[in-house]
Amino acid sequence: MASKLKALQSKACQASQLISKHGSGYYKQLLEQNKQYIQEPATIEKCNLLAKQLLYTRLASIPVRCEAFWKELDYVKHLWRNRQDLKVEDAGIAALFGLECYAWYCAGEIVGRGFTFTGYSV
């Protein structure tokens, strides 16, 4: 156990040195590449305005998202009505989608329990 702790400390030290050496250069490069997205001057009022614009833009997109949802639902209903015409590929995709939903549910349960598998924390 102590050797694993020493190895972990060594890796953390190496990562810290790498970040301190190259971090500011990466930060400057990232800002330079994305300068068209930076608002000048960066004031509290401007940040509040952008936050409100994001919120209301998202709210305005809800009807479009609802319409897309109902179209998808109609497509699924159509597929279910004509299920005898389904291909093996379509059934496989549906099964994989169901499996993925179940896996995300299980992962959410594990995260909700504090990353324990049995529900008991040690």
Short description:
By secondary structure, this protein is mostly helical. Among the domains are: 39-85; 86-117. The chain is built from four helices and no strands.
Q: Strand pairing plus helix content: what structural class?
A: mainly alpha
Q: Unreliable segments (pLDDT under 50, ≥5 consecutive)?
A: none
Shape: flat
Strand content: under 5%
Figure out the total of helices: 4
Count all strands and give the number: 0
The quaternary state of the protein chains shown equals: single chain
Major sheet size, sense and barrel closure: none
Measured as a percent range, the helix fraction is over 70%
Note the gap between the termini: 17 Å
Mean pLDDT: 88
Order of helices and strands: HHHH
Q: State Rg.
A: 25 Å
Task: Describe this protein's structure.
This protein is mostly helical and 122 residues long. Among the domains are: 47 residues; 32 residues. The mean pLDDT is 88.
Keywords:
122 residues, mainly alpha, flat, membrane, ATP synthesis, transport, CF(0), proton transmembrane transporter activity
List the helices and strands and how they pair.
Blueprint: H1 2-33, H2 44-60, H3 62-81, H4 88-112
